[in-house]
């Protein structure tokens, strides 16, 4: 895909660290980052976008399948430079509503204005991606960081079992 071996190795290492303790397999995470990287042309940023989506969806009660579906749809939207209504609905269906509301607040918009702006191009996909990454890392607009939210919400027994399965696969 045109990325250096060093950048790829660094991204895989960061990716592996970001999913540790979560019910996300490394294979699935790598595939999702590849999809995003094909639309952003930036493997480091794609890894951060994936982490934010994974953290947000899992943190608000979603599952790995919802993460995969959202990434597929959003990578296509990002490649086109616009997030259309069906893409927005996919994010809502995956449980990202609180994150989208926080991003809108941080951008001094309503959720409807953010949705419409992403659809008509008045809000850039790049700005949206940057805000999503920032929300994942630092939080904002009354929301803890998505990294904190996912750690708090995935500490239950069901997640523990899924994590054990993932750890066995990783070990093998």
Spell out the key features of this protein.
172 residues
Short description:
With 172 residues, the protein is mainly alpha-helical. It has ten helices and no strands.
Distance between the termini: 27 Å
Number of alpha- plus pi-helical segments: 10
The secondary-structure element order is HHHHHHHHHH
Assign an overall shape.
globular
Secondary structural class? mainly alpha
Strand residue content: under 5%
What do the pLDDT scores average to? 90
- Please mark out the parts with pLDDT under 50 across 5 or more consecutive residues, or reply none: none
Helix residue percentage: over 70%
Number of strands: 0
Largest sheet: none
Rg over CA atoms, rounded to whole Å, is 15 Å
List the helices and strands and how they pair.
Blueprint lengths: L4 H15 L6 H15 L2 H17 L4 H17 L4 H9 L3 H10 L4 H10 L4 H14 L7 H8 L3 H15 L1
Helix pairs in contact: 1-3, 2-3, 2-4, 3-4, 3-8, 3-9, 4-5, 6-8
Structural description of this entry:
With 172 residues, the protein is mainly α. It has helices at 5-19, 26-40, 43-59, 64-80, 85-93, 97-106, 111-120, 125-138, 146-153, 157-171. α3 (43-59) crosses α8, α3 (43-59) packs across α9 and α4 runs antiparallel to α5 (85-93). The relative contact order is 0.13. The model has no long low-confidence stretch (mean pLDDT 90).
